[in-house]
Structures are given as structure tokens and as C-alpha cells.
Design brief:
Layout (H helix, E strand, L loop, with lengths): L1 H4 L4 H6 L2 H6 L2 H21 L6 H8 L6 H14 L2 H12 L13 H37 L4 E6 L2 E7 H25 L13 H6 L4 H14 L16 H30 L2 E2 L19 H25 L10 H26 L3 E2 L1 H15 L1 H10 L4 H20 L7 H7 L10 H4 L9 H16 L3 H9 L8
Antiparallel strand pairs: 1-2, 3-4
Helix pairs in contact: 4-5, 4-8, 4-11, 6-7, 8-9, 8-14, 8-20, 8-21, 9-12, 9-20, 12-13, 12-14, 13-14, 16-17
EC number: 4.3.2.2
Organism: Hohenbuehelia grisea
Keywords: Lyase, Purine biosynthesis
């Protein structure tokens, strides 16, 4: 019952994947601290400091915390008001041979900041994999509907035709840019390494009796043991909080993309042209039983706004880090960084669920085209008349008058667009009446949209997903089932 009596973030309890929720859990955080302490001890031993084999063995055997150890750490933190020292003490209890060398020469940010960098890199990997799957799903949708004509909109007013598949490529292209940005951010992340209290490595220089080469070797070796290719060449007590800006920026940009996609789907749902999945037992409204609300897309928009705003926290936090550090970043980052990744994770899984169940209504789309296409076809009709020897200005005036009459039927009387019927009844257009069906074929108004879809998928999407990581993610992916 305790879980029901205290606030829990819905990001973890309601929406996020198990993998992302675990990444930012206490269990993962503190076991990562222990691994970092182990890496430091191994490197210090290799470079000649008195670290016993028993110390290394006991640390290796106790990297995961038991419930009892969590309780001990909580009691210690309450007493010491210092989370890192509480966990140093707790680790030492289960690895007594290492108690005297755990955290040797290090400052708290050795574990807190290096762990955060590990989480940022891993979290980006999860998002990259999820995004690859989403792009794959939407690409299949684009290919399926590559040549299905649909009314285009500019200013949300009827414009020239496009295709359902071509519209989807606009979504995918932005997601490809997000994929690129996430990959760049992940691949650029370095390690804080072992830099000491103000980044000067003074404590480690003292440990190694002034041997600068060994201190440099220690930094390099711990970096390697922790799985990073390089460490930031200089740091203060912390790694620069500008790194958080660089990581959250592509997440915020992904939020903007997701919001645009979900908004398009919400608008199309209103037009009854395309709908997101809707289960047979799903209730759209507690009062209006007929409703089919696009709640998944609405959720994406809601969370996307949250994700975009979180980037501002990183900007402001970085800007106020005085000199070698202040602690006013800590509480903010404990909230901002996990929430950004959990929110990004939820947005991608929800969009994947939507993409896997999008329902297209071709007859509704065709009906809307039929209401607008006669007006769009007027230029084609004029050109056909001219080809038969008619006068362009005269034809234009004839079409203009008939168009206004048809517009009156639609706007003032609420009737159907009867422009073509008026054209058929007017003797002036007798020379081209046998061409009207061809002139009004929607397929003749979509330009190169189908070919653009084919080329885009072939030349841009396929190469972007043609790597081991994306291929494995797509191959292992399963249909997303949302819990709520």
C-alpha cells in the first residue's frame, strides 16, 4: 500500500519502458558507483598502490546492492548528510578488505558525474534504437500509401494534392535528423575520469609521490575500464554542465518533431481521413459514447511539450556554475536528466504504437478530394480548351463565373461542389467534355510524389538504418502494447 500513499512519477509508474526506468533507478545508480570504485581500485593496483587481491575480489562480488544494504545506506545518509560517503561506508561493510581503499584519492563527483555520463550514453543508445524502429515502421506506411492521392493543406486550407505516403516522408525526414542528432550527441560523450576536487588531480599526484605520468596513466586506465574512448582533457570538480545542454538539445528537438507528427494525426482524425489505433473496448468519452478521441497522439503532444521545456533547465544550470562548481545543479539535474530520457522513451514508444495501427480511410479521402478538385482542375480545363483552339481569356471568364456559382452552392447553401456538372451543361466546353474524366483524375495532380517516396526511402532511409545497431533494433522489435 505504501506505493499508493506516496507520489510516484507517472513517467516511470505509468508509461516508460522497463529498460529506461531501470537505467535511472537507485539500484542501477549505486551499482554503477560500485563499479566505478572497482575500476579505480583496479587501476590504482596496476599502477603500484597497495590494493590487495582480496579487496578487488570482494568488490567484484558485491556490485549489486541488497535491500538490506539500501536500508543501511539510507540510515548512513541521514546521519552523514552525504550520499556518496553513505555508500562508501555501506560498500565497505560487504567488502571489508576494500574498506580502506574505496574512493581512494577521489572526490564525490568521481562516481556521481562519471555515472551520469554512463547513463546519458546508455539512455541515448536506448532512444536511438527506439527511433530506428519508429522510422522503420513509418517507412513501411509511406511505402504502402506512396501513391494514394490526398488533399494537401497549406495554412490548413485546401491546396494541391499530395499522397498519404509523401506526407509521411515529411515526418520521417525530421526523425532522420533526430536520429543523426542523437547519434552525434552519444558519440561525442566523454568521461570525466579521475580529476580530483577541483580538477587538478592534486590528490592523485600525492598518492603517486609526484609521478605525473602515473596520474595520467590512471586517468586513462579508469576511462578504458569504464568503456569510454576518451576523458575530457580538463574539468572542474564536475564535468562541464554544457554537456547536459548538448545531450538534452537533440531530445528537445525530437520533442518538436513528435509534436508536429502527433498534431498532424490529430487533425487528420478530425477530418476522418486517418485514425490512430482504437481498441474495440476503448472508451473515447465518459459522456459521448460515439467519440474516438486521438488520446495517444494527444499524449505525445503533451509529453513533447514537457520534453522541449526540460532543455531550458540544462541551459540555466550550466550558466550559473560558478568557478569550479556550485551545488545548485544537483537537485535540478536529479529531476531533469531522468525525466528527459523517460519522456523521450515514452514519446517514441507511443508513436511506434500509433504507427503500427494507423487506419487510413481512402473513401473519405477521395470524397474530400472530389469536393475540392474541381476548383483545382480549372487551369487544366482552360489549357484543354486552348489546345482545342479556344481563347484563354474567354475560357478563364467562363470558368470564373461557374466557379463562383459552385462556390455559392458549397458555402451559402451547404450543398456539394457541382462545378463539373455546370461545365458539362455549358455548350462552350463541348470540345473537351470527353476529356473531363482524365482532367479530373486525382493521380494526375500528385506530381512526382510516388517517385519521391521511393527515392527517399531508397536513398535516405535505408542508408540511415543500414548499420548493425539499427538493424538489430528493428529485427528484435515487437509490436508495442501500451499499458494505458
Amino acid at each position: 500500500m505504501d506505493a499508493y500513499n506516496t507520489y510516484q512519477t507517472p513517467l516511470a509508474s505509468r508509461y516508460a519502458s522497463k529498460e529506461m526506468a531501470h537505467l535511472f533507478s537507485s539500484a542501477k545508480r549505486f551499482s554503477t558507483w560500485r563499479q566505478l570504485w572497482l575500476n579505480l581500485a583496479i587501476a590504482e593496483k596496476e599502477l603500484g598502490l597497495p590494493v590487495s587481491d582480496d579487496a578487488i575480489s570482494q568488490m567484484k562480488a558485491n556490485l549489486e546492492l541488497t535491500p538490506e544494504q539500501f536500508d543501511i545506506a539510507a540510515q548512513e545518509e541521514k546521519k552523514r548528510r552525504h550520499d556518496v560517503m553513505a555508500h562508501v561506508h555501506t560498500f565497505g561493510q560487504v567488502a571489508p578488505a576494500a574498506a580502506g581503499i574505496i574512493h581512494l584519492g577521489a572526490t564525490s563527483c568521481y562516481v556521481t558525474d562519471n555515472a551520469d555520463l554512463i547513463f546519458l550514453r546508455t539512455g541515448l543508445t536506448y532512444l536511438i534504437q527506439s527511433l530506428s524502429v519508429l522510422i522503420s515502421r513509418l517507412s513501411a506506411f509511406a511505402a504502402q500509401y506512396r501513391d494514394l492521392p490526398t488533399l494537401g493543406f497549406t495554412h490548413f486550407q485546401p491546396a494541391q494534392l499530395t499522397t498519404v505516403g509523401k506526407r509521411a516522408t515529411l515526418w520521417i525526414q525530421e526523425l532522420l535528423w533526430d536520429l543523426r542528432n542523437l547519434q552525434r550527441a552519444r558519440d561525442d560523450i566523454g568521461f570525466r575520469g579521475v580529476k580530483g576536487t577541483t580538477g587538478t588531480q592534486a590528490s592523485f599526484l600525492a598518492l603517486f609521490d609526484g609521478d605525473h605520468e602515473k596520474v595520467a596513466a590512471l586517468d586513462k586506465r579508469v576511462t578504458e575500464l569504464s568503456g569510454f574512448k576518451y576523458a575530457y582533457p580538463v574539468t572542474s570538480q564536475t564535468y562541464s554542465r554544457k554537456i547536459d545542454i548538448d545531450v538534452l538539445a537533440p531530445l528537445a528537438s525530437l520533442g518538436a518533431t513528435a509534436h508536429k507528427i502527433a498534431t498532424d494525426i490529430r487533425l487528420l482524425a478530425n477530418l476522418k481521413e486517418i485514425e490512430e489505433p482504437f481498441e474495440s473496448t476503448q472508451i473515447g468519452s465518459s459522456a459521448m459514447a460515439y467519440k474516438r478521441n486521438p488520446m495517444r497522439s494527444e499524449r505525445v503532444c503533451s509529453l513533447s511539450r514537457h520534453l522541449m521545456v526540460l532543455h531550458q533547465n540544462a541551459l540555466m544550470t550550466s550558466s550559473v556554475q560558478w568557478f569550479e562548481r556550485t551545488l545548485d545543479d544537483s537537485a535540478n539535474r536529479r529531476i531533469t536528466l531522468p525525466e528527459a530520457f523517460l519522456t523521450g522513451d515514452i514519446i517514441l514508444s507511443t508513436l511506434q504504437n500509433i504507427s503500427e495501427g494507423l487506419v487510413v480511410y481512402p473513401k473519405v479521402i477521395a470524397r474530400r478530394i472530389s469536393q475540392e478538385l474541381p476548383f483545382m482542375a480549372t487551369e487544366n480545363i482552360i489549357m484543354a480548351i486552348v489546345k482545342q483552339g479556344g481563347d484563354r481569356q474567354e475560357a478563364h471568364e467562363k470558368i470564373r463565373v461557374l466557379s463562383h456559382e459552385a462556390g455559392h452552392q458549397v458555402k451559402q447553401l451547404g450543398l456539394e461542389n457541382d462545378l463539373i456538372e455546370r461545365v458539362k451543361k455549358d455548350p462552350y466546353f463541348d470540345p473537351i467534355k470527353d476529356q473531363l474524366d482524365q482532367l479530373l483524375d486525382p493521380a494526375s495532380f500528385i506530381g512526382r510524389a510516388p517517385e519521391q517516396v521511393d527515392a527517399f526511402l531508397r536513398d535516405w532511409v535505408n542508408p540511415a538504418l543500414d548499420n548493425a545497431e539499427s538493424k538489430e533494433a528493428v529485427a528484435k522489435s515487437v509490436k508495442v502494447e501500451l499499458s494505458v
